[in-house]
Amino acid sequence: MIAGLLERDAGEVLVAGEPMTTRSVRAKNAIGYVPQDLAIYPDLTGRENLMFFARLYSMPTPAAKRRTDEVLALTGLADRAGDQTEQYSGGMKRRLNIGIGLLHQPKLLILDEPTVGVDPQSRNAILESVEGLSGAGMAVLYTTHYMEEAERLCDRIGIIDHGKLIAEGTRADLVGMVGEGDQVRLSAIGDLEKAAGALAARSWVRQAKALDGSIDLVVENASSELPAILTDVAAVGVIVRSVEVAEPDLEAVFLHLTGRALRD
To answer: Same structural domain for residues 64 and 117?
Structure first.
């Protein structure tokens, strides 16, 4: 619906200030769409693919050649520009697919599962490219089932379940919905029961347990309270050897909101 391929069921879609429908032209011109299924021609070279799609964007030949060179450099494909894309690896094809969406320098880039089926090196290259695009001021709409990608890339995150947007906000906003607090483990020596009791008196400590060689805590905003935690345990003579902090992640948020595991 955002790309204007389907009519919206309700509400309004604006792209670059223009209303979007299936019949829109100016709004669609502002979008670069990178589908999950590869939209490239295997019998053409990387350069020929880019030039073909540049013509579909009605780019003059000099501008198309210049932009093709820029995109090949951006996607790391300049040294393979003359090879047929059927000879490309899965990661190279994905990067070319993204490059096609970038040819006309859109204001909004829509990426649909861009790292599916690629090797770790290509996946990291794709993620670094997306980070660079958003850092340069391009709006990026990124759909993924990989929560770590959303955490790494996105300023705002929406969780969709059975076609409905059930939560939206910053990572901090969403993690706050879980209400679990941060998990903190102090590996320490000394009177751990006494230290756990001192920490339990803190209003921001939800749980404090002394175990064999460690103290396990559930803490609100552990990164801010860590100095106070260390001060409290030192005050009762406990020596801390190491600290581990685990914050609730987006997968925990998803499971909390949907009650189901990640799935297609």
So the answer is: yes
| Domain at 240, CATH number | 3.30.70.100
pLDDT tens-digit map of 149-185: 998 999 999 999 888 899 999 988 888 776 667 889 9
CB atoms within 10 A of CB 66: 13
Q: Which residues contact 14 (CB under 8 A, 6 or more apart)?
A: 20, 27
Tokens for 31?
Answer: 């979008």
Residue 70: count other Cβ atoms within 10 Å of its Cβ.
16
What is the tally of structural domains in the chain? 2
Q: What is the pTM of this model?
A: 0.75
Residues pairing with 251 in the sheet = none
- CATH number, domain with residue 38: 3.40.50.300
What's the pLDDT score for residue 247?
Answer: 77
Assess whether 125 and 26 both reside in one domain.
Answer: yes
Largest Cα–Cα distance in the chain?
76
Sign of the CA dihedral with 72 first, then 73, 77, and 79 last? positive
Q: 130 with 214, same domain?
A: no
Residues of the chain scoring pLDDT < 50: none
